[in-house]
Specification:
Length: about 300
Amino acid sequence: MANDVHKIGIVGVGAMGSLFAFFFHNYYQLLLYDSNPDTVHVIKQGLTVEINSTQQTFYPTISNNPAILAEADIIFLFIKSFATCNAINNIQPHIKPNAIVVTLQNGIGNVELISSIIQNPLVYGTTTIGATKLSPAHVRFGGTGSIIIGGDSSRHCSTVHSLLKQAGLSVTIAPNPKKALWEKAIINAAINPLGALLEVPNGKLIENNDTLYIMKRIIQEACQVAHADGIGIDSDQMIEKTVTVCKNTQNNFCSMLQDILAKRKTEIDSINGAVIDIAKQHNIDTPYNATIYRLVKYKETR
């Protein structure tokens, strides 16, 4: 259980990695790894989290050398989907063979990619918790949310569940985590591209009938694709869930918008792009997802 876990590794100290480091730092010894030496240097001077109108600064152990993860009992991945392959290859020679790897990443396809590179126990899932990176060492809590996890081993899932609960987080173990991944991807497909293109926080998207209409069409297409992929998801329920996420994270700037503003590559390929790719395998037309995908790809180049 969580009491047996002494050291927690985190790969990637963007908005979510920084926020989860804050959640964990009072309960576990943290070992943070980020490949960017400039980010590591700044965070060594203190990582500040803005939550509920207050600011707290803590000083995690961090390095741009993946060997820092050698003693970690559980390793959380908070990296962009397109960086998964490089990150796993970088850490693989250094981590313990029995270390539990946990991914709460956005997008579809990360679990399969991770499993193809390492043989470690894998727990995977999603979270609707929001965070915004204000600077390399300053993150703002964007809104409360839940965590859903699952995996092949109930023992490993229980271990991860216990440590997340001890850190004060809302977490459940799902019997079908792949469905949870699809549901999160559909929510992201509806919120992130529109937030990025319009450059507005999540809450603004549901205040306008036109944006809400587009979100609904994106969701309906994605649910049809998920069904063809063997995952039954009700589109009306997904629309309700997406609206709820927008309300709960109304002040949060989605990660895709944060990437666009920082002139970074987005995760559009593993979100709407993945929906489009799987749709093609089943001869399903996805005009709303395809249009929003192309617009974001254009904006990435600006």
